[in-house]
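Case study 2.
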Amino acid sequence: MLWDFKLLNGIKINSNKMKILIIRFSSLGDIVLSTPVPRLLKKKFPKSEIHIITKKDYSSIYNYNINVDKVIEFNDNLFEVTSNLKKENYNLIIDLHNNLRSNFIKFSLKKRFYTYKKQVIKRWLFTNLKIPVKINHITKSYIDSLSGLGIYDDKEGLDFYLDDNSFKKVKSLPGINNNNFTAVVVGAKHFTKRLPLNKLIELCDKINGPIALIGGKGEIAVSKEIESFFNYSSSSEVPNKLNKKTKIFNYCGKLSILESASILKLSKNVYTHDTGFMHIAAALNKNIISIFGSTHPNLGFYPYKASFSIIQNNKLECRPCTKIGLSKCPAGHFKCMIDIKFE
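Prediction:
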């Protein structure tokens, strides 16, 4: 048999048997934003075997990805995981996390590696000193980590593969089966990325039509408040305070990530905070209206290669105050969300 050998930084590698490990533990948005990497690796090394290690909560993002051969769930036991990874005998490591744990793994495996370069200083200058430096989109930074392999962006955006069972289940749900609804992503991991309840109600009122609410268990309480505000009967003691046509279909805390993604796929438009589902919507090529509070799209986390518009308060000198969100407003007024206008 003739083998196809490639020279990788002076090292001869058998690309027919090449085995690659991608490391990205979390979070939801970052996992989605990393999806061009295995696609580009497969294009460069079509006969390679690609594995990715990530946390169990996010493994479904890659379970149906045609460019990934194996998804390894990271169980927080670093020594056990590293021991198991050594048995795989990888040729190449792509570190898209670049933290203490990912560095421990790649150095322990003693294989050729490439590492994603964080733009820490630039983001610090923007969030702390408000210096508007140019910051690359994080997906571009992920892709740039492959440049040493002669791999560059193919301009095809993000990937997200839905499974048939989730899609069929969601398609039969109330309010979803006619595709005539707007998806609203209720939550976000950090408080300063989330609209207050009254602003969410105002947003739903402005949409003025069927709405599917998307979110996890942490959004159940606020989603029920929205639902009870709009969904009423003529005999209800609680009138529709805004006298509008908004109809709420509440799926917060009821669906998996893939099922929620299927709702996004079937929607007309997606309204979302700066969160993981915003990037899933981008991967699904949806029309996105992104709502930014304490963070800012110029930090490099806006929807990647997608059709989108931004709602944000541009009149505050304190924005952005963080790159990932905070548990409370450091200035005490939270005007970045409270004063947002829905035109």
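The CA atoms of residues 181 and 210 lie 5 Å apart.
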